[in-house]
Amino acid sequence: MRTRRLGTTDLIVSEVGLGTWTLASNWWGRTDEPDDMIKAALDCGITFIDTAPVYGDAALGETMLRDALANHRDEIVLTTKCGYDTSKPRPAGQREHPHDWRPEAVRQQCIDSLNNLGIDHIDLYQLHNVRIEPVLADDLWAELEALRTEGKVREIGVALGPAIGWVDEGNRAVDERPICTLQTVFNVLEQEPGLTFAARDRVRNGECSLISRVPHASDTLSGKVTPDTRFEKGDHRAHRNRDNMLDNFEKAETLEFLWSPETGRTKGQAAIAGILANPAFANVLPTVVNVDEVREYAAASELPLSAAETRQLDELWSRNFDHEDRYVMPLKSSQ
Predict the structure, then answer these.
(1) Residue 204 neighbours by CB under 8 Å, 6+ apart
(2) Which pLDDT band, with edges at 50, 70 and 90, does 132 fall under?
(3) How far apart are CA 318 and CA 313, in angstroms?
(4) Average of pLDDT values for 21-44?
(5) Are the beta carbons of 298 and 45 closer than 8 angstroms?
(6) What domains lie within the chain, and their CATH numbers?
(7) How far apart are CA 185 and CA 64, in angstroms?
(8) How many CB atoms neighbour CB 63 within 10 A?
């Protein structure tokens, strides 16, 4: 497993990470036992684990990590998130909890996460699915700096979402706030707004690193589903626009050179290697549901793209993979 640095900090992370979102919920289908998946990740050299108190019920995404952190704290770079008021019920379906960005609320969220995780500090504390108001709130950032000064938090980052977009929010967070990471939806088929963020000065000069989530474009790049797959109502992938999914499956056909037998890569590994070919991205967080996927995607770190493959991928992206889209995914914004 290769490693990269988060910005200019002391945090060195595995190129492939483990997110607990699918481990703590059933929103991506049935998963293996979380303990088995966490153990597999550590055995594969994954050192970066991403979680949040809103993953699952009763902060399960955090509490499920207590044993691993107790036994492997020095090996793990742990990131969790703030911003959501988990004391209030989640709206029906897969909608978001309400946010609470008051400084005193975020401080209590931090303390609660430390207790949930059984640790005394958080390596990377990310603002979760942030909107423009908290990005611009000086009192909030003063409180985050106080948490860092007190040693409760080592570094600060921003996670954009839930859907793709949030360009102004990401740009202003990178440009105006002391973050070392910006997490965004990014994959080889959906490279904006990731490329926009990668072009910001602080990212270009290495002060701020990018983190990719949804790297397999809702499994159109994983080889796990087909265009004929129909997801159950509670599956998060069922929310994807059907024409958008079909567009991505067809675009992916132009990329078969990245996972031909000669490369030694699976389709899912090629998708991760394609992201890591961009040096702005320090880490990829694949969506995993079983131990085999953890092992498969972790191995992508050792199967980097060649310079020629990267050039060919970039050329195809510039031509929209020689495809005429049925549907253009809108970029979300709180502006």
Answers:
(1) 198, 280
(2) very high
(3) 9
(4) 88
(5) yes
(6) 3-322 (3.20.20.100)
(7) 25
(8) 17
Whole-number Å distance between alpha carbons of 40 and 54: 23
CA count, 13 A, side-chain hemisphere, 66: 10
DSSP, res 215: T
Instruction: Please tell me whether the overall predicted TM-score, pTM, comes out greater than 0.70 for this model.
Output: yes
Q: Which residue carries 């979402």 as its tokens?
A: 161
| pLDDT for 311 | 98
* Long-range contacts (CB closer than 8 Å, 24 or more residues apart) made by 328-333: 329/164, 329/190, 329/241, 329/244, 330/165, 331/164, 331/165, 331/166, 331/167, 331/192, 331/193, 332/163, 332/164, 332/165, 332/166, 333/165, 333/166, 333/167, 333/168, 333/169
Strand partners, 156: 125
Token pair 């990014």 in the structure block, residue = 186
Angle formed at CA 96 by CA 52 and CA 198, multiple of 5 degrees: 65
Please give the Cα distance from 218 to 304 (Å, whole number).
22
Nearest partner of 182 among 161, 206, 208, 205, judged by Cα: 208
Tell me what the pLDDT averaged over the chain comes to. Answer: 95
DSSP string spanning 68-91? HHHHHGGG-EEEEEE-B-TTSPPP
pLDDT at 94 over 60: no
